[in-house]
Amino acid sequence: MSKTIIISNRLPLQINIENDQLEVTPSVGGLATGLKSFHKEGDSIWIGWSGMPEEEIPGHLIEDVKVKAKEEDCIAVNLTSEEIDGFYYGFSNRTVWPLFHYFMEYTESDDWYWETYKKVNQKYAEEVLKHYEEGDHIWVHDYQLLLVPNMIREHAPDAIIGFFNHIPFPSYEVFRTLPWREEVLEGVLGADLIGFHTYDYERHFLSSVSRILRHQVDFNEITLPDRIVKVDSFPMGIDYEKFEKAALNHFKNTAEDKSELQRRLDHHLKTTPDAKLILSLDRLDYTKGIANRLRAFEFFLDKYPEFIEKVRLVMLAVPSRSNVPQYQRLKREIDELVGRINGKFSTVSWTPIWYFYRSMPFENLVDLYTSCDIALLTPIRDGMNLVAKEYIATRTDHTGILILSEMAGAAHEMNEALLINPNNFDQIARTLKQAFEMPKEEQIERNKMLQKRLKRYSVEKWAQDFMKSLRNTEDNRQAFEAM
Ligand code: ADP
Ligand code: F6P
Questions:
Q1: Is the ipTM here above 0.90?
Q2: Taking the model in full, what pTM does it have?
Q3: What is the whole-number distance in angstroms between the Cα of residue 234 and the centre of ligand 1?
């Protein structure tokens, strides 16, 4: 029977070693959390990195890593520290990530990063080829593996290959600055179907293909000498039921079942019943606009001092890519901003910001989603932003207000949210005030519409649509051969 082979840089499970024992935790990030439900339900295997450098896995535990991964239908690709430096911290996160998010000043062009990226992409492709059988569908994910589709195609010319990009694809004017632009496009074009979250990213990609490689592009099809490649947009959804159910269960918790975090949140609600909680939740990444968010919050408190002691920003920043200098600088900047704002506004009984720099278990995320009256998400650029969707899915009584950056892919489908420009602090401050004053009926009306859409276009539907479209590319092939 044919199967689906999923390939992404990271597996949905992160393996660590504590006291000579393997510890398995779920990976953080939209790709892993979103795709996990599709993987669980379907007949698929998932190939990716376990999250640890190969040298740090003691010899006697290597087999255990394989077994742990296998229990979850996963296959771990081992990467050495050097490969992680050049491929992951290097080309993926110092070249492609900043460039594709329009942070050109952060983009580095380094030959060694590029050479390592090619080598590691080859490693992933070889792992896929080891498990590939005729009739299987191969689904390659994200910007860390842009060359993999063509590397597979070279050895399995008839394979059915899909590629999905989870981050923005930049405009031609930005993409063309990449020294390896031709190789990158040729790598992706090894796929039969290429998917993006939004129509804009799709258009930018098609424009780069036609202007850089001069291939014929008709509407959303690219004609290569030997094949037709289809490009389309598939906005990724969430496992709606999982979040809805978790929220409903959360409300059934007795006092003893409650987490320490929830008790603190409850205490806040009890002691300051007319104060509101604003949620800020992301990986600590410069694309997420966390520093802007803090500055806008400060601007809000300066502009509307009547909200002092009536509001608290609960900010969870999950450590991410901490070997990259920009992430280290951002961490320092955020520490300073939080300290400064808390110092400036705190009273003896109140601090405006609660700041957590750590990863939290799923239950705590649900505590935060369900307890916060407002979610303030202000990315400067974001491929999608699943946190926005998760927040809405957990609002089972339909209250709550989402303030979302118009630069997030999710904004295209979430018109009923309060959309803001993350660089306009005055607009953010005014929108926060609007959120504070929004009647419950209006919140319910907006959220019901958002929820209906999110429920319908869940991650399951997203994956089904992509796979259906991928299967349809077989017809394209036959049509091409008949030409
Ligand atoms: P990105 O993929 O850029 O990290 P998204 O908002 O699309 O951004 O996805 C983030 C995902 O990571 C969400 O599914 C969210 O639930 C998950 N997540 C965020 N913070 C945590 C955390 N502290 N612990 C576990 N999962 C988290
Ligand atoms: O969604 C974008 C993304 O880069 C995913 O590819 C990745 O899984 C996630 O964010 C988290 O990043 P990282 O794997 O670098 O920790």
A1: yes
A2: 0.96
A3: 19
